Amino acid sequence: MTAATRKPKPAPARPAPPLPMTAYADDIYGWAMEQAAALRTGNLSVLDRENLAEEIESLGRSEFNRLVSFYALVQLHMLKWHHQPSHRCASWAVSISTHRKHVSLTIADNPSLKSRLDEAFERAYLQARHDAIRETGFAPAIFPIDCPFTRDEAMSLPFLYE
After folding, report:
1. Which pLDDT does position 78 carry in this prediction?
2. Which of 13, 114, 118, 131 has the largest CB neighbor count within 10 A?
3. 3 state DSSP class of 14
4. What is the DSSP string of 79-101?
5. Structural contact between residues 160 and 111, judged by C-beta atoms closer than 8 angstroms
6. Could you say which DSSP state residue 115 is in?
7. Residue 2: what pLDDT?
8. Which distant-in-sequence residues (6+ apart) come within 8 Å of 87 by Cβ?
9. Can you give the pLDDT at residue 123?
């Protein structure tokens, strides 16, 4: 092959310019998928660090709030059990048992929440008391301002329905 018949070598392919990243405010799902892909591939320069940090913190807060919610359901049915003995039913006992299990599983899945159990339990009582007042129609004074049982009692007292 002579120089005249030789085909010129193609120029090396240039990498495609990076696609613009989805804006956090425009499409959180698309943004999240792109951020996850960038993390997995090690493309750290495209990360939206501020919003990513905020979302991670939000995830942690949601686990705490989930714990509070489970405690509140336990407390609500304990309050109703105590103050409405003629209305006791299997569903209250089942709810107490089920949400105790959810509390235990949430703590097992998030051991660092152990340092905030008392705080979660106290916050939960505010919600449980409010819901008990609303659901029973009783005067607020019927339900004490402070939780009438300890966290250990809430997690262990038997509630058997016959």
Report:
1. 98
2. 131
3. coil
4. HHHHH-GGG--HHHHHHHHHHHH
5. no
6. G
7. 60
8. 80
9. 98
Task: Give the burial class of 80: count Cβ atoms within 10 A of its Cβ; 0-12 exposed, 13-18 middle, 19 or more buried.
Answer: buried
pLDDT at 111: 97
Instruction: Report pLDDT for 12.
Output: 67
Summarised one tens digit per residue, pLDDT across range 97-114 is 999 999 999 999 999 999
- The structure tokens listed for 80 are 């109703």
76 burial class (0-12, 13-18, 19+ CB within 10 angstroms)? buried
State the number of CA atoms in the 13 A half-sphere of 152 facing the CB: 0
The candidate with the shortest Cα–Cα distance to 25, out of 50, 45, 42, 43, is 50
If we measure between CA atoms, which residue out of 72, 106, 73 comes closest to residue 92? Answer: 73
**Count of CB atoms within 10 A of residue 82's CB?**
13
Q: Scanning the structure block, which residue is given the tokens 């359901």?
A: 73
User: Residue 74's closest CA among 125, 22, 27?
Assistant: 125
Nearest residue to 60 (alpha-carbon basis) of 127, 106, 125 = 106
Token pair recorded at residue 142? 């019927």
Name residues of the chain where pLDDT drops below 70: 1-5, 8, 11-20, 162
Residue 70 structure tokens: 């489970």
